[in-house]
Write a structure and sequence with these properties.
Layout (H helix, E strand, L loop, with lengths): L1 H24 L1 E6 L7 H12 L5 E6 L4 H10 L4 E5 H9 L13 E17 L14 E3 L6 H12 L8 E3 L3 H9 L5 E6 L4 H8 L4 E3 L5 H9 L4 E5 L10 E13 L4 H11 L2 H10 L21 H9 L5
Parallel strand pairs: 1-2, 1-3, 5-6, 5-7
Antiparallel strand pairs: 3-10, 4-7, 4-8, 4-10, 9-10
């Protein structure tokens, strides 16, 4: 009995040493995403499968609370990479916006820009809102306190010389804002997210009568020159029922990492992300996957690229 017990212990010990050896050879690459019902999580799963290399790199998508949680996870070492909005990445890196008063996340680095998250200014039909300037004195929801949207909206209002005080500001979630607009208690609301957004699609198909107001003109151009994470964007006609094409701006969904990660690891991940095999998986896997292209990879950067990603983009001629 004792001998058998000793052999079992020895076998387990040898197995543990073997596993430790394997773990050292393999690089674990945990990607912080978002809630399981959102877009970040399924996209993260597709990317994790695409960039994993047997025996070399094991990538996994991890559900999280989104942009801010992912950045904190990367800086704290619980994630190797994560998804975030480009504006949130910029604020973390520069210690501004939602990160005002916090230490600058100077180790934050960009792997790639994935797809646009459009800024929607949804107005009630007949409210006389054709541009941001028309919001003066109107009942407008700017999204909830602590949201990236709220900071974006204040920047947009600021470009037109306005603040919360120039409008009758409310701070509601998009679904609540949609209900209130439908009931006539609100003139407009802002929402940032990939189009089509569920709350707005529901509103448009309910016959509530909405318009999506373009975000264009000299004020927006000046804002973009100052805040480089804003990118020109178009919401295609009929993305929402009875709404034509809308020119707007977007922030981008981005994949970020830490400067501490080895150059070779990030180079391998970036190269795998833009391989022909991954292209097919992204095209067939999720509506937003089609937008994860080489052309979008370096748009609206806002923070420095990781040297590994930069090396790949220089190789394929995207960066000089």
């Amino acid at each position: 009995m004792k001998l058998k017990h000793w052999i079992t212990t020895l076998t387990l010990a040898v197995a543990a040493v073997g596993a430790a050896g394997t773990a050292q050879a393999q690089q674990f690459f945990r990607i912080g995403t978002g809630g399981t019902a959102g877009t970040y999580y399924p996209i993260g799963g597709i990317i994790a499968n695409a960039v994993s290399q047997p025996g070399k790199l094991v990538a996994t998508a991890v559900a999280s609370n989104g942009s801010v949680a992912n950045i904190n996870g990367i800086l704290g070492g619980s994630f190797e990479a994560g998804f975030t909005q480009s504006d949130v990445a910029y604020w973390a890196y520069s210690g501004t916006g939602t990160f005002e008063g916090k230490p600058k996340a100077q180790d934050l680095r960009l792997i790639s820009t994935l797809y646009p998250e459009s800024i929607h200014l949804v107005a009630r039909k007949g409210a006389g809102i054709k541009s941001v300037a028309d919001l003066k004195g109107k009942r407008v929801s700017m999204d909830e306190p602590g949201s990236g949207t709220l900071v974006d909206v204040r920047l947009i209002l600021g470009a037109y010389g306005m603040t919360d005080k120039d409008i009758k500001a409310e701070y509601l979630k998009p679904n609540q804002a949609g209900d209130k607009l439908k009931d006539g208690g609100l003139d407009a609301f802002f929402f940032v997210g990939g189009a089509p957004a569920g709350a707005i699609a529901e509103l448009a198909s309910s016959g509530a009568g909405i318009e999506i107001v373009p975000l264009v003109g000299p004020e927006i151009d000046a804002l973009r020159a100052k805040q480089e994470f804003f990118t020109p964007d178009t919401i295609a006609a009929n993305t929402y029922q009875n709404v034509g094409e809308v020119k707007t701006i977007s922030v981008n969904a981005q994949m970020v990492t830490s400067a501490k990660l080895p150059e070779q690891v990030v180079y391998d991940v970036t190269k795998a992300l833009y391989s022909d095999a991954t292209r097919k998986t992204l095209d067939n896997g999720h509506a937003k996957g089609k937008l994860i292209t080489r052309d979008n990879a370096i748009k609206g950067a806002g923070i420095p690229f990781h040297p590994g990603a930069e090396k790949f983009y220089k190789e394929i001629g995207l960066l000089k």
